[in-house]
Structures are given as C-alpha cells and as structure tokens.
Write a structure and sequence with these properties.
The structure is a homodimer. Chain A is mainly α and about 250 residues long. The first copy, chain A, has ten helices and three strands; from the N terminus they run ααβααββαααααα. At the A-B interface, helix 4, helix 5 and helix 8 of A face helix 4, helix 5 and helix 8 of B. The structure holds a DNA duplex (30 and 30 nucleotides).
Chain lengths: ~250, ~250
DNA sequence: AATTAATATTTTATCGATAAAAAGTTGACA
DNA sequence: TGTCAACTTTTTATCGATAAAATATTAATT
C-alpha cells in the first residue's frame, strides 16, 4: 500500500518528468539527434516521419522545428518543409569567427567582474573534465555523451562571470552550431594528456587574468577544428593584430 | 464577367499574398505590434486573444510565438503561456553592450572587405534617410513607419559588407530588441538637422575607414538611448580603453 | 477574519482531420 | 526520344475539438 506522502511524491515526480512540455522534449531530442549526427546535414525533416519516430504529435514537432530554426540548426523553406542545415567551410569559418568575438569578450568581462564563485566554478569544471578524461583515457576517441557535456560546461564556465546573459546565450548557441563540425573529428582524437593540458592552460590563463594569453589559446582551440577539417589556414579576422602585451 | 486571364491573374495575386505562410504573417504582425508598443512589455499573449485579434488559427500563432521567443522579444513560461518580454535598465545595458561588440566588429570587417557596392549601399541609405527627414522635418517626432525602416536599414548597411551572415543577423536582432526602448524616446526627438548630421558623420567615418572614430560615434549613438531613458552614465565596457589613434 | 478545501472556469498543450500545395508519375504528342 | 501536360500521390499548413493544467471563485471551518 502506498502512503499519502508517497503518492504526493510520485505525483510530483510524474509532473516533474511529464509536465515538461512535449514541445520541449521534441526540441531536446531533435537538438540531440542533429548534434549527434543521427540526423545528417541536408536531411529532410518530414513531419510525418518525426511524428512516427518520436511518437509526438505534429503540433509540438512543428513548434520544436521552428525554435531550432532560430538556432541555425534547421532551415525552414517556405511551403517545402524543414531540413537539417548543411555544413560548409564558409559556415564553420563564420561560426568560429563569431564565437571568438563573443567568447573573448565574455572572458574579458569575466576577468573583470568575476568573483570568487566564478573562479571556483572554472576550477570545478576543469577538475570534472580532467577526472573524466583520466578515467576514460582508453576510450577517449569514442563519442561520449558525458564528455560532450563536460566540455561544453567547461567552456561555458569561462564566461560565466561576465554578467551578460546575451553573451552567455550566444556562446552556448554557437557552441552547438560548431559541435556538428567538431563531432567529425572526435574519432581522430588521440592524446588525452594533450587535451587536458590544453584546457588546463586555458583555464589557468583565464584565472590569472591574462587576457592576451587566454585569447590566443582560445583562438587556437577554436580554429583547430576548422584547420583539421578543411586543412585551411585560420585566416583569423579577430584579435589577429592584438598588441603583444608584456606578461 | 471575368475573363480566364484575369482569373489567373487574380489567383496569382491571391497566392502571392496568401502563399506566405500564416505563421510568417503572424510572426510579422506580432513583431510589429511588440516593437510598436501596441503589445506592452509584460502583457500576456493569450492564445485565444491572438487567434481572435489576428484571425489566424492557434497552430500558426503558437509557432510564431515560439520563433519570437528565440529572438528575445517574447518569454515562454512553462505551461503558463507567453508574455511580452519586460524592459529593464540591466537588459538595455546588455543589449547595448552586445550590440556595440557586434556592430563594431561588423563595421571593422566591412571596412576591410567591403567593396564598391558596399560603399554605394551606405551612401544610398544615408541619402534615403536624409531625404525622408528633410521632407518630414516638422512631424519628425512622430512615430513613422518609414523612418523606422530607413533608420534600421542605414545601420544595417554599415555592416553589410562584413561578409559574416551571423554578425548581420545578430545586429538586426539586437536592433529589434533595442527598438522597444528607443521608441519611448521618439516623441522627444527634436532636431532633425542634428539627427542627420550625426548619421552623416558616422557614415563618413565608416567610408573613410576610420575605425576609431566610427567606433566612438557608434558607441555614443547606441548609449544615448540608455543615457536618456535611464539617466545613467554609459559605463561602456567595450572599447573603452581603445587607444587614441591619430587620424 | 483568515486560511484551507472544494469547485468552477479559463487557458494551455495537444491531437486528429482536412484542404491546399508541391513533388512525382504517367502518357500523349511532336 | 524528349518535352509538355494532365493526373496521382505525398506532405505541408492549418483548423476545430479535447484533455489536462493552471487560475479564479466560492464555501466551509476554525
């Protein structure tokens, strides 16, 4: 027999899980499936297909698609339906340049305004990232949900202290857009130690308020995807002419 | 009696007007009504109200609302509905800072990459703006659709040559967000000549590739709304420490 | 009079059905 | 054999109806 207390608890759990709008569920699942590559670039997102696949009605699916359009993951074409956005070198370059602009400003502001909690947050995220990589050193190349999450959160933490909701939101957005490209490289990642060392260096530079160093590291980090996928020179348009400040 | 030819023509016109998705129509009308202040900040956007007002079904209305949520004009709250986003000083400050970052980078890139057509575009928009103001000097303070459009396009033209779709889109987006605040001031605008002179100076600086001057003018321009509405000091976080480059 | 409980009302979120495009197919004619 | 036109199928965009929440209202009890 179930006591009243338990019933209430379960009801809360139920609503806690199910009270999330179907639209939101659809957004999350579509987002995930697009980032993971399950839904490839260019693929047509037919309503009836999606309704069948996700077992969600057409209205919430449609609403979810609309939301993802504004996030540049999906393209809506007049009366012809929805499609997963195509990838291109020009697009990745645009993403990367914009990201650099947004993230560097966010980091700059965080350095200026960030307090103790912000610093603690950066350290904590770095720590989580390191622990995970150390524990999964062998399967490092594999796509791993948890690693994705930690990596995203690490980068988010760097600008978490900036005090600008818009910069934070934009950075997160651009991260998602870049992820589809980065994913392609994931299987080729080799050296966990190198990976951790890189991120540690960035975190340290940020916490040391060394804007110049942090910016340079971040630029290298962001452009590495572009370089490795398209074997192009970065052609960084941003902060390229930044003065060499004595550190 | 109507000939076959006319019938076809009318049908085309009909589809020409109506083939635009109802969702898109709803987006435009909501966008307009929010920017114009017809739908005030904080107001609840009840579905049935909107359905009745716009004479559009609930599905397209809902889709339109979803899209505008990602544009920061509307807030969606769980199962409680949609609301026009509130205004606040902190929000305008965030908008303004972000705008400055985006626009200045866009202008910088336009200066670097913009060709003849870009320059022509800037001049043309400046000209259109001037002509309109000169012709409507007396009713200058009034809200005027056409002036809004021209002003928006003028600012868009400054970064039109930057080659970054994302910067362009972001700038436009932020313009809309700022517009709700700027609108409050519109009735107090006094001097058409001053208005035109300001914009002319900005256009000239941009075309002369004087980044420093253009940045300063743009900062002043953008922060003037903040200053005038909230009587605050700008506290510009951006480019504040920029060196005084000899022009 | 105030706080809670029970009820009624409104409104959202969602589904299933439908009309209208778009895409695809077939067949006729040059 | 190729092109155009009529027709069929598929799929989108949209509506009206409904179940489930949230909100407002009333009643009851202390």
């Amino acid at each position: 027999m179930v006591s009243a207390g338990q019933e209430i608890f379960m009801a809360q759990q139920d609503t806690g899980a199910e009270s999330v709008t179907l639209t939101e569920q659809a957004v999350q699942r579509l987002h995930h499936d697009i980032l993971s590559g399950k839904l490839s670039p260019g693929v047509k997102l037919g309503i009836s297909n999606l309704v069948a696949t996700y077992e969600i009605g057409a209205t919430p699916i449609r609403e979810a698609l609309s939301r993802l359009v504004s996030q540049n993951l999906i393209v809506a074409s007049g009366r012809r339906g929805f499609f997963v956005r195509e990838l291109s070198e020009a697009d990745l370059r645009d993403i990367t340049n914009t990201r650099l602009l947004i993230e560097c400003e966010g980091i700059r502001l965080s350095m200026e305004r960030g307090g103790d909690e912000w610093e603690a947050e950066v350290l904590a995220q770095m720590h989580r990232l390191r622990l995970f990589v150390e524990r999964h050193g062998s399967n490092f190349g594999e796509q791993h949900h948890e690693l994705d999450r930690l990596h995203r959160q690490f980068h988010a933490s760097l600008l978490a202290g900036c005090g600008s909701p818009r910069l934070i939101q934009l950075a997160d957005n651009l991260y998602s857009q870049a992820f589809r490209y980065r994913r392609i490289l994931m299987t080729t990642w080799s050296d966990p130690d190198h990976y951790i060392a890189n991120h540690k260096e960035l975190a340290d530079a940020v916490l040391a308020r060394d804007l110049n160093h942090a910016t340079n590291l971040n630029r290298t980090h962001l452009f590495s995807t572009l370089r490795r996928i398209y074997q192009t020179d970065p052609q960084p348009t941003l902060y390229a002419e930044e003065p060499k400040e004595p550190r």
